Amino acid sequence: MTTPVAGFIGLGRMGMPMSQRLLAAGRRLAVWGRTPGKLVPAVDAGATVAATPAALARGAEIVMLCVSDTDAVEEVVFGADGIAAGAGPGKLLVDHSSVHPLRTRALAARLEEDTGMVWVDAPVSGGEDGARDGRLIVMAGGEATALDRVRPLIGAYATQITHMGPVGAGQACKMCNQLIIGAEIAAIAEALNFAARFGVEAARLSDCLAGGWADSAVLQNHARRMAAGDYRTGGSAHTMLKDMTIACDMGRATGTPMPVTGLVAALYELAVAQGLADAGQIAPMRLYRDGPV
Ligand SMILES: NC(=O)c1ccc[n+]([C@@H]2O[C@H](COP(=O)([O-])OP(=O)(O)OC[C@H]3O[C@@H](n4cnc5c(N)ncnc54)[C@H](OP(=O)(O)O)[C@@H]3O)[C@@H](O)[C@H]2O)c1
User: Fold this and answer.
1) Which atom of ligand 1 is nearest to the CA of 96?
2) Whose CA is nearest to atom 30 of ligand 1?
């Protein structure tokens, strides 16, 4: 018996290693990308290329997305030759992108109403290394039975998959994840700067605090890079601004005060305005450490 075909759209920094792990696990995978040349590593690993998102959806039972932002999700699903044009009852869309929870709800309702295709929002955390090593965590929203159908697939690149509620709940949890990381990055930049100005060796702070209550993946990863003056690697400042903006919007939508997230959003806005959109997500923290860039 052959395994059903899954489809993957958005083979970027995250989607490519996720697709490669699906292929390495023996899954039959169809892929589509608006820049076909970027699909080569997946094709080399055994993926077939669909002509359009609609064609991909027609031939696949499960369609997975990991594209940049909410507009990209909307375009791939409802644009010309989009997934909706090839969708139907029994098919399932799994969105691994980090996007707006309320817009996700609206898109999911429209897709199911128009075509019968069901939506699971399943954003991830763990970065490119986590995707490559199969150590992502997934926070999911949607029907539990729908999520259960795709757990074996997602298990190719994730160690933890948590169902958090109806459609949109996964994206809400991802925004919680992002606003915590954003605040941590900013606080760590202040701590490093203070330590250095006091004459303490800032580069040793991550080791010194390891295992204590301030320890975290951000302290062990981003702080080490900041202390070494490497502000380029990791997710982009533009992606963090996208997520901080969504978080602030959700704060307004739910009447939740978010002064810290608002401040962090302003730092990223400043960094992007200074031409650092493509720089690493810790780029704005150079403002703290070295003065205006
Ligand atoms: N990078 C991380 O560490 C990380 C971690 C967790 C979650 N995320 C989230 O995962 C998602 C993807 O991030 P990434 O870092 O993999 O980004 P990326 O490397 O920029 O990849 C984005 C992918 O989306 C495609 N895309 C964008 N707009 C599109 C459109 N309108 N139509 C069709 N395809 C489109 C891009 O195609 P082209 O190549 O043709 O532009 C590319 O394949 C984002 O929502 C991000 O917030 C990222």
Assistant:
1) 10
2) 72
Query: Considering only the top CATH level, what class is 5-166?
Result: alpha beta
Q: Is the CB of 15 under 6 A from ligand 1?
A: yes
CB of 97 shorter than 6 A to ligand 1: yes
Nearest one of 139, 142, 148 to 172, comparing CA atoms: 139
Task: Report pTM.
Answer: 0.95
Sheet with 28-32, strands from edge to edge, namely: 48-49, 28-32, 5-9, 62-65, 92-95, 118-121
Q: Map out the domains of the chain as residue ranges.
A: 5-166, 172-290
Residues (pLDDT < 50) of the chain are 292-293
CA 269 – ligand 1 centroid, Å: 20
Tell me the one-letter amino acid at 212. G
66 C-alpha vs ligand 1 centroid, how far in Å?
A: 6
Q: Does 38 participate in catalysis according to the annotation?
A: no
d(CA 235, CA 210): 23
Model pLDDT for residues 210-220, shown as the tens digit of each residue: 999 999 999 99
CA of 46 to the centre of ligand 1 (A): 21
Per-residue confidence (pLDDT) for residue 2, from 0 to 100:
63
- The CATH code for residues 172-290 is 1.10.1040.10
67-104 pLDDT per residue, tens: 999 999 999 999 999 999 999 999 999 999 999 999 99
